[in-house]
């Protein structure tokens, strides 16, 4: 396993690779994936020194956890840290029906996760979204009991606001907050990120390429049948505007001899040692490109040029469709 830079998941969490691998797209939401290539990508990530694998028990209705289990069968479990989200309610047609973060759901979901992953513990366990019917203290308290039992090592949260973060942290130390953060998604900078830093909580940033929108690989003519087909940022004039921002980045990237994706990931890496970007590579070539961001150093002049090309709030359209936005405690 190669040595790559490491960062800590807050003051209470473990050391992890400076980039983590988000495995969702290998099972769900981005259309069909090649299972053999997915496993090869997980292996390549581990061989490169990536030790953080992020999943959710509802990705492919358990398929993603089973995939990770298969990928790790010939690997040392102690070489990786597995972060799991739970609570999203699905149906057989792929529909979404809210969230369940009751203490009973914590115990039940974790039991199934441990069996699917083929492990005796989860390194970081977190509710995928705040359950408005359940006080966060009850959810975190139930996970804390699993920490005491040894089934969970650390507690995380996902897409919650500052008030919820404070309430949860008062019950048990929170290692990290998983939340969307990218050049065109910077809302956390106003209040959530400062609160996390005050409490010693790291950020595991997903959507660092905005679901491929700012990867440099998306074009206005590209059609999609996955969930991006209803994403506001991928619609009509919004898409045209957002891709014009990408073209502004392309010149900066070319001057540095890197790809647009590497520039965008490097920008997130530059925001602080307490931020760990999650890259959703489903193929080895995309993983290799993402890992190249670790070699990119952004100077003050580079950062100023990027800020000029893509100012805060420059993106057109919300990051999720209206119904999904309504479920985000982080947007309240």
UniProtKB/TrEMBL annotation:
Domain of life the protein comes from: Bacteria
Transmembrane spans: none
Alphabetized UniProt keyword annotations: Oxidoreductase
SUPFAM superfamilies assigned to the protein according to its UniProt record, in alphabetical order: NAD(P)-linked oxidoreductase
PROSITE patterns for the chain: PROKAR_LIPOPROTEIN
Taxonomic placement: Bacteria, Bacillati, Actinomycetota, Actinomycetes, Pseudonocardiales
Pfam families in UniProt: Aldo_ket_red (PF00248)
Protein's recorded name: Aldo/keto reductase
Family annotation (Gene3D superfamilies): NADP-dependent oxidoreductase domain (3.20.20.100)
Domain NADP-dependent oxidoreductase: 19-309
């Amino acid at each position: 396993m190669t040595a790559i830079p490491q960062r800590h998941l807050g003051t209470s969490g473990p050391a992890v690779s400076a980039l983590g691998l988000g495995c969702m797209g290998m099972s769900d939401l981005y259309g069909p994936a090649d299972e053999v290539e997915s496993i090869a990508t997980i292996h390549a990530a581990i061989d490169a020194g990536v030790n953080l694998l992020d999943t959710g028990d509802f990705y492919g209705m358990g398929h993603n956890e089973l995939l990770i289990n298969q990928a790790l069968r010939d690997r040392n479990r102690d070489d990786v840290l597995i972060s799991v989200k739970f609570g999203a309610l699905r149906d057989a047609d792929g529909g979404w029906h809210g969230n369940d973060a009751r203490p009973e759901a914590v115990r039940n979901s974790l039991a199934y996760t441990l069996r699917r992953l083929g492990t005796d513990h989860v390194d970081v366990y977190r509710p995928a979204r705040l359950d408005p019917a359940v006080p966060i203290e009850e959810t975190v308290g139930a996970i804390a009991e699993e920490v005491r039992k040894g089934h969970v090592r650390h507690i995380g949260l996902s897409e919650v606001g500052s008030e919820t973060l404070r309430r949860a942290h008062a019950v048990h130390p929170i290692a990290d907050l998983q939340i969307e953060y990218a050049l065109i998604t910077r809302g956390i900078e106003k209040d959530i990120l400062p609160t996390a830093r005050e409490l010693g909580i790291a950020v595991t940033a997903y959507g660092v390429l905005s679901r491929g929108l700012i990867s440099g690989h998306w074009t206005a003519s590209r059609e999609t049948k996955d969930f991006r087909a209803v994403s506001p940022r991928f619609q009509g004039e919004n898409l045209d505007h957002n891709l014009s921002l990408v073209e502004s980045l392309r010149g900066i990237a070319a001057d540095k001899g890197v790809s647009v994706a590497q520039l965008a990931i490097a920008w997130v890496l530059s925001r602080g040692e307490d931020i760990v970007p999650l890259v959703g590579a489903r193929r080895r070539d995309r993983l290799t490109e993402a890992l190249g961001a670790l070699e990119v150093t952004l100077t003050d002049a580079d950062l100023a040029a990027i800020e000029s090309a893509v100012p805060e709030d420059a993106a057109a359209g919300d990051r999720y469709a209206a119904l999904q936005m309504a479920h985000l405690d982080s947007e309240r």
